[in-house]
Write a structure and sequence with these properties.
Elements: H1 2-16, E1 27-35, E2 38-49, E3 52-59, E4 62-72, E5 75-84, E6 87-98, E7 101-108, E8 113-120, E9 152-160, E10 163-174, E11 177-184, E12 187-196, E13 199-208, E14 211-222, E15 225-233, E16 238-245
Antiparallel strand pairs: 1-2, 1-8, 2-3, 3-4, 4-5, 5-6, 6-7, 7-8, 9-10, 9-16, 10-11, 11-12, 12-13, 13-14, 14-15, 15-16
Length: 248
């Protein structure tokens, strides 16, 4: 599952990359990318050397450096190429800088274009950390009888080529039948599956710019952990995942 989510997430990552441009755009920016699946928010750090632009794209997937951008007046332009299913996808990002904001278009090869906008992040003094509470009360028991249940919210980690991607998963399980939703960088994806003993099996279809990818995930429920997670990615190979039950 991770790989297919990675492909879609990587696509939106590149959508977001060129989200900043101005006479001086060096620094951190919050970026919003509009896609068919809704708005995606990411962060960019720009570096500037005259008209040359480079930087780092930051997301739950990790950090992706980029370079070879240009800033001419208030016109920003980046070009990228990312392999999708073994085929390079050329992405061209353009934008217009207006003070502390940027708006623009992203051209995704022959797959069309999308809108994006960005706001400069103003530096501010961090709020003082709250004083630590006295360690007098014992923490509530963690088990809560969850060792044999799957229903509820889980924090999962998907391993991708760009690093670990944290996602949230909500399971609903009745008599071995499992349904739920995975929420990650590219939005929510619904799944269905089964729980047989401790064996978990989930199936869903990930939508990517290159088409739909069927994904089958398996794993072992062990109390408040899901271990030995594997994902078959529609003929694209296999990936790994794990999860822990969310705590209030």
């Amino acid at each position: 599952m991770k790989r297919s989510r990675f492909l879609a997430a990587a696509f939106f990552v590149l959508l977001a990359i060129p989200a900043h441009a101005q006479t001086s755009i060096a620094g951190d920016w919050d970026v919003t990318i509009q896609s068919p699946q809704g708005a995606t928010n990411v962060q960019l750090t720009f570096k500037q050397d005259g008209s040359k632009i480079s930087g780092i794209f930051k997301s739950p997937m990790g950090e992706l450096p980029f370079q070879d951008g240009t800033l001419t007046g208030d016109d920003l332009r980046f070009g990228f190429s990312i392999p999708i299913q073994g085929t390079p996808l050329d992405i061209t990002m353009t934008g217009k800088v207006d003070g502390a904001t940027i708006t623009g278009k992203a051209q995704f090869g022959t797959f069309g274009e999308g809108d994006w906008s960005a706001k400069r992040i103003e530096t501010a003094a961090a709020a003082p950390a709250a004083a630590a509470a006295p360690a007098t009360a014992a923490a509530p028991a963690a088990s809560n009888g969850s060792a044999t249940g799957l229903s509820g919210k889980w924090d999962a980690t998907l391993k991708t080529q760009m690093g670990d991607v944290p996602v949230s998963v909500e399971f609903a399980e009745t008599d071995g039948k499992v349904t739920g939703t995975i929420v990650g960088p590219m939005g929510p994806v619904e799944f269905a599956g089964s729980l047989t003993g401790s064996a978990i099996k989930l199936e869903f279809v990930a939508k990517t710019p290159q088409g739909d990818i069927p994904v089958t995930m398996s794993g072992e429920l062990n109390g408040d952990s899901i271990m030995n997670g594997k994902a078959e990615l529609g003929g694209m190979g296999q990936a790994e995942w794990s999860a822990k039950r969310s705590r209030p």
